[in-house]
Amino acid sequence: MLMKREWLTGCMLVATLAAMADDGYPYLTLQTTAGTEVKMAVDKMTIAFVNGQLVATNSEGSQQIPLKDMKMMYFSETATQTVVTAIDGATATDEKVTVYTVGGRLMGSFDSVKEAREALRPGIYVMKTNTKTFKTTIK
């Protein structure tokens, strides 16, 4: 049953890759549960599921990620990756901050990191100020 599901997922992904590349989204981002992102051009890309791993190959190389470590895949217009410059709130608390979920959903804008921490539910968030972008955990 698992092989059939992997095969069907692979077929749907390959069809989607072709359609998305034609619609102006020529890059695929593979994101792991640890937050690591790999961006690959979808032109001439193949994706296979081998021994519990997703294997994505294009003209630039190949990436292997265990399926148990996969969080999400999405398409983008550019190959630019988000750079996290600090971890766990290492920024001035009086800077204005915009907060996103790790999935990219906007949670709001706040006058300070302290205000954001008090307003948000427990979870992991990405906070962006004028000078830094960082990931933080609210317990």
How are the secondary structure elements laid out?
Layout: H1 2-22, E1 27-32, E2 37-41, E3 46-50, E4 53-58, E5 61-66, E6 70-76, E7 86-87, E8 97-101, E9 106-110, H2 113-119, E10 123-128, E11 133-138
Task: Give a quick summary of the entry.
The protein is of the alpha+beta class. The protein has helices at 2-22, 113-119, and strands spanning 27-32, 37-41, 46-50, 53-58, 61-66, 70-76, 86-87, 97-101, 106-110, 123-128, 133-138.
Please tell me about this protein's structure.
The longest helix is centred in the first third of the chain and has 21 residues. With 139 residues, the protein is an alpha+beta fold. It has 2 helices and 11 strands, in the order H-E-E-E-E-E-E-E-E-E-H-E-E. The chain has a 5-stranded mixed beta sheet with strand order 7-11-10-8-9, covered by helices on one side. Strands 2-1-6 form a 3-stranded antiparallel beta sheet, with helices on one face. About 7% of the residues have low confidence. 20% of the residues lie in helices and 42% in strands. Strand 3 and strand 4 form a beta hairpin.
